[in-house]
Amino acid sequence: MSQSAVLPALADVIRSGFTEGSHRGSLVLLAPDGSVEFALGAPDAPVFPRSTAKPFQAVATLRAGLPLRGAQLALAASSHSAESFHQDEVRRILADAGLTEAALRTPADLPLDTVEAERLLRGGGGRAPILMDCSGKHAGWLAASAANGWDLEGYLAVDHPIQLLAREALEEFTGEDAAHVGTDGCGAPLLAVSLTGLARGFRALVVAEEGSVGRQVADAMRTHPEYVAGTRRADTWLMRAVPGALSKMGAEAVQVVALTDGRALAFKIDDGAERARGPVLAAALRRAGVTDPVLDRIGTEPLHGGGQVVGEVRAAF
């Protein structure tokens, strides 16, 4: 039986004043000291973190000895929109290691951002590995592997040195052993941990000692949020608007945020519905004390009928 039968509704679908449906899931909010302040559902059950694992995977790239800084380090932790500046920097990371985009083992894909995808298709372009939102992470892994003389063809194998470092970093920062090993959409190993562990992991990045590898990743992401996501993405808007916030989305509607005061949150919409992400994120951040107007931008998810707004997806807590 799916967990959705017992998980609470995190968002309701309200059309013309009628509750048309709900999106269930789990959520956890940590207090400044890292203790659990608020929880819904089963936040201690393992989930696949999807791309919210990328900051820890970027830590692995640094620990492998690749001295990425600034926008390039942010890109190594990104789910980018394949805007031109993203592609240029991926190529630069590879070129500095003597590699080209042909070394990427990301699946050929269209840009994650629909505006960029439509622009590409109108111009006669098509799917390519560099356009896949994980190509920045892969470029960092490839460059680190090249610098160490590690196998480049098999850098996605679960026992490859860069993947062992990635597992070590994830387990260290979350404080949990991986409950299951799978394969992510980009082909990389995917390790299941709890939402509570993810929230604590992001908190650890933000409160880490200045100059440490974890803090380097957090600072790069917060300084260059456009490279973490893109110019039309909620993670970018949030990190630009709320000083010191560290925000990262993942596929299947996973989201993690940490704030400078030590608060952190993580949630997953059980059915993976993207339309519920923004309303739930805005409501969770309000509960954490964030009051910036950006929450209205992030949290508004209208429903349409006959070309008019007739309802909304609304947080249920």
What characteristics describe this protein?
317 residues; alpha+beta; two-stranded antiparallel ribbon
Structure description:
This protein has 317 residues and is of the alpha+beta class. 38% of the residues lie in helices and 20% in strands. It is built from 12 helices and 12 strands. It has helices spanning 54-63, 70-76, 84-96, 114-122, 135-148, 161-174, 195-207, 213-223, 225-228, 234-241, 277-287, 294-299, and strands at residues 9-15, 18-30, 36-40, 46-47, 181-183, 189-191, 193-194, 246-250, 254-258, 264-269, 302-305, 308-315. Strands 1, 2, 3, 8, 9, 10, 11 and 12 form an 8-stranded antiparallel beta sheet that branches. Helix 1 (54-63) packs parallel to helix 5. It is globular and about 60 Å long. It starts with 8 loop residues before the first strand and ends with a strand. The relative contact order is 0.19. The model has no long low-confidence stretch (mean pLDDT 97).
Radius of gyration: 19 Å
State the end-to-end CA separation.
25 Å
Question: Could you state the order of secondary-structure elements as H and E?
Answer: EEEEHHHHHHEEEHHHHEEEHHEE
What oligomeric state best describes the polypeptide chains here?
Answer: single chain
Percentage of residues in strands: 15-25%
What structural class do helix, strand and pairing data support? alpha+beta
Give me the number of helical elements. Answer: 12
Poorly predicted runs of 5 or more residues = none
What is the helical fraction, as a range of percent? 25-40%
Tell me how many strands there are: 12
The coarse silhouette is globular
Largest sheet, described in full? Answer: 8 strands, antiparallel
Query: Whole-number average pLDDT?
Result: 97
